[in-house]
Amino acid sequence: MALSDRIKEARLKSGLTQEQLANMIGAAKSTVTGYEKGNRIPPAATVGLIADATNVDANFLYQDEVRERKENNVSLEELSMIKKYRFISTHSPDGAHMVDSVLDREYSIATQLKEHSEYIQNTERPINNTNNIIDMRLINYYYRVASAGTGQIIFDMPPTKRIEIPNTPEYRKVDYAIGVNGNSMEPTFHDGDMLLVEMTEEIEIGDIGIFRIDNESYVKKLGKTELISLNPAARNIPLNETAGCMGKVIGKLPTDKNQ
């Protein structure tokens, strides 16, 4: 049982909801959800807070990781990184928090990419009658530059990479993929989701799109006078003369968890 499962088990045994646990450790509910799904790895200090909140020993939460570390050899390079992290944690706590943030972000993206790869391998594919090879095509993927929060500059750099999607009718209008940053479009889209976008400058009111306002980008639902967040706790963005549409969101990249 992984750390994510132990956290969920401890929370349930203590009778706490995800929101209650989040409040007790000073985090967002979506963060706790990420911990329990394995999409985010809590820092050691946060694990301690979770242990206190759920009245368990931290060793209970870490027992499988400790066993795995004993069963697997650690390379010299990995050992050096661990020593560096411990040094940073001791002498620069803010720096350690920054490292934790980067690790969480990259782990979430790596998980999404792994699930996408597995989905492509396992999904039913259209068959070519002559050689049984699926018809695939490449699209640009932009790494987390569509903000579902406070906004980020969009397309200010080349695409992060090119990814394959099935060349089927449901994907035919997809021009590019883009990552979500933030939680203002929950529960439809979550932080780290990979959105599939049709490139167009005009969409209907009520459609979800990628928008640019004052050189910042957002994924929002189009309203008459503002861009609307689906999460009631998040703010809407008023439209102004700089507003422009960068594309219509027609879905998100499927993963095993979304099936």
Polypeptide structure, described:
This protein has 7 helices and 9 strands, in the order H-H-H-H-H-H-H-E-E-E-E-E-E-E-E-E. By secondary structure, it is of the alpha+beta class. The protein folds into 2 domains: 3-92, 434 Repressor (Amino-terminal Domain) (Orthogonal Bundle); 136-258, Umud Fragment, subunit A. The protein has a 9-stranded mixed beta sheet with strand order 2-1-3-4-9-5-6-7-8, with no helix packed on it.
- Cα end-to-end separation: 23 Å
Q: Identify the overall geometry.
A: globular
Largest sheet: 9 strands, mixed
What is the CATH class of the largest domain?
Answer: Mainly Beta
CATH architecture of the largest domain: Ribbon
Q: What's the name of the CATH homologous superfamily of the largest domain? A: Umud Fragment, subunit A
Quick check: average pLDDT? Answer: 79
- Total discrete domains: 2
Strand sequence of the main sheet, in spatial order?
2-1-3-4-9-5-6-7-8
DSSP strand tally: 9
- Give the SSE order as H and E letters: HHHHHHHEEEEEEEEE
Q: How many alpha or pi helices?
A: 7
List the defining traits of the structure above.
434 Repressor (Amino-terminal Domain), Umud Fragment, subunit A, globular, 259 residues, nine-stranded mixed β-sheet, 2 domains, alpha+beta
